[in-house]
Each structure stands twice: as structure tokens, then as C-alpha cells.
Write a structure and sequence with these properties.
single chain, mainly beta, 43% strand
């Protein structure tokens, strides 16, 4: 049985600052955005087949953004974080 992609990584939550502009009041602020850092394990998990071995060789460390929206500190309206950077390869 093939392994899931999560079986190949260690997951660790982290926060990073992001300068975002509210579309309503046009106020630019710095917000803490939550991410999950997925770091490739140093060896293949047990029970892996040939397909999993090939996949494991191609994998890289990356970040996945958890937060999709933040609340503006000035006008208190919720706005979406631009989706062009929801996944970052390291």
C-alpha cells in the first residue's frame, strides 16, 4: 500500500511576519501569519514500495500557509491574504 505524502515529512508550526494592505481602509500593517514547515525525513519510512522510493528522492522541504485571512487592526474587517504565496519551497 502506498504511503501518504505526510509520512515523508516532519511537521512543525511557525509564524512569520507579513506586511499586508487592507483593501477597505488601505492601511498597511504587519501581521503574524501562521505556516506549517514540512521538513523531509532523513530516511524512508518503513513499508515503502518502489513508487514511494522514487517519490521520496524528488521531495523538497516547504512551507504551507495556514491562515487564509486576517483582521485589519484599524477597521476590524476581515480580508483575505493574497493566494499567490500559499506554498513556499525552501
Amino acid at each position: 500500500m502506498a504511503l501518504h505524502e505526510r509520512d515523508f515529512f516532519h511537521e512543525k508550526p511557525e509564524s512569520k511576519p507579513a506586511a499586508l494592505t487592507c483593501p477597505e481602509c488601505r492601511q498597511r500593517e504587519e501581521y503574524q501569519v501562521r505556516w506549517i514547515r514540512r521538513t523531509k525525513k532523513d530516511r524512508l519510512p518503513p513499508g515503502a514500495d518502489e513508487r514511494d522510493r522514487a517519490l521520496f528522492g524528488k521531495l523538497r522541504d516547504y512551507l504551507i500557509r495556514v491562515d487564509d485571512a486576517v483582521v485589519c487592526r484599524r477597521c476590524q474587517r476581515k480580508f483575505e491574504i493574497p493566494s499567490y504565496q500559499s506554498l513556499v519551497f525552501l
